[in-house]
Design a protein that fits this description.
single chain; about 270 residues; mainly alpha; 3-stranded antiparallel β-sheet; two-stranded antiparallel ribbon; 5 strands; elongated
């Protein structure tokens, strides 16, 4: 089951990642085009860029991505949960209940747990543009020469592409796994969750990383408990409670598994 779920997740996540990368790259281009290049000088470019590029637009993009991917993945996980519980007693996972819970929680999640990430992404983007200008000045280029270079860069299909991909990979992992746990909580049965790692050369583990996602593969905890990931408590892969080293570029997922009592029967619980 684990191997099959991993294979399915990788296929799904590739689609999520592609969609999110496009959204982010388009947003970064829009933000770049807001900069009044004709007003930049050697003395004011830092202030102008910081004032023009705010978190508002990025917040909207995050919401768009999290809502779309979360709803898609939550529905998929819900179908898998239903296939496992097979309509225990009366009611099981329902799509309406999941959508209601997910849409209720997603905004507060983004602005509480995801707020620091959005600020970090904004600051990284500003830093990138300022470094291009600073490099040009150090090379004795004039401001008109630098802004001309920026105009060409902003129009390029490669503008901020690899950074957008890294952000997309990270955020789609978080969005999907947040939705998966939400689906588990409204399933109506007692659930556990199992960490499933990608198990390939890119999976982080010592000695190349302090964090070990390879050893996490197959670790199972109750749905309301946290995983211990190299000393950090995380609700699921990509959980913003984890540090950057534990979450950026993470491609792990979490499977939802109904728990059974000593007689092997599924246990009904009130959706939480």
């Amino acid at each position: 089951m684990r191997k099959q779920y991993r294979k399915q997740w990788i296929r799904w996540h590739n689609g999520y990642e592609k969609y999110a990368r496009i959204v982010f790259q388009q947003e970064f281009r829009k933000l770049a085009n807001k900069i009044p290049l004709q007003l930049l000088t050697e003395n004011n470019y830092k202030t102008i860029i910081e004032n023009v590029i705010t978190t508002t637009e990025l917040q909207n993009s995050y919401y768009t991505i999290y809502k779309r991917i979360g709803l898609i993945h939550g529905k998929r996980v819900g179908k898998q949960i239903n296939a496992q519980i097979k309509k225990v007693e009366s009611k099981d996972f329902t799509l309406d209940m999941f959508i209601s819970r997910f849409e209720r929680d997603i905004i507060s999640f983004l602005f509480a747990k995801g707020g620091d990430r959005i600020v970090s992404v904004r600051n990284g983007y500003i830093k990138h543009i300022k470094e291009i200008i600073a490099t040009g000045l150090n090379d004795n280029k004039t401001i008109p020469e630098i802004t001309s270079q920026l105009q060409k860069l902003f129009k390029s299909r490669k503008w901020y592409r690899w950074q957008s991909l890294r952000i997309a990979r990270t955020e789609t992992t978080t969005a999907a796994n947040f939705a998966a746990v939400t689906a588990s909580r409204v399933s109506g049965v007692l659930m556990s969750k199992e960490w499933i790692s990608s198990l390939d050369p890119r999976t982080r583990r010592p000695p190349h990383s302090h964090y070990d996602h390879y050893v996490m593969n197959g670790v199972r905890v109750d749905v309301d408990k946290d995983f211990d990931v190299s000393g950090e408590e995380m609700e699921y892969p990509g959980d913003p409670k984890g540090s950057a080293g534990n979450t950026i570029n993470c491609r792990c997922t979490v499977a939802q598994i109904p728990k059974r009592d000593k007689n092997g029967k599924l246990v009904r619980v009130r959706p939480i």
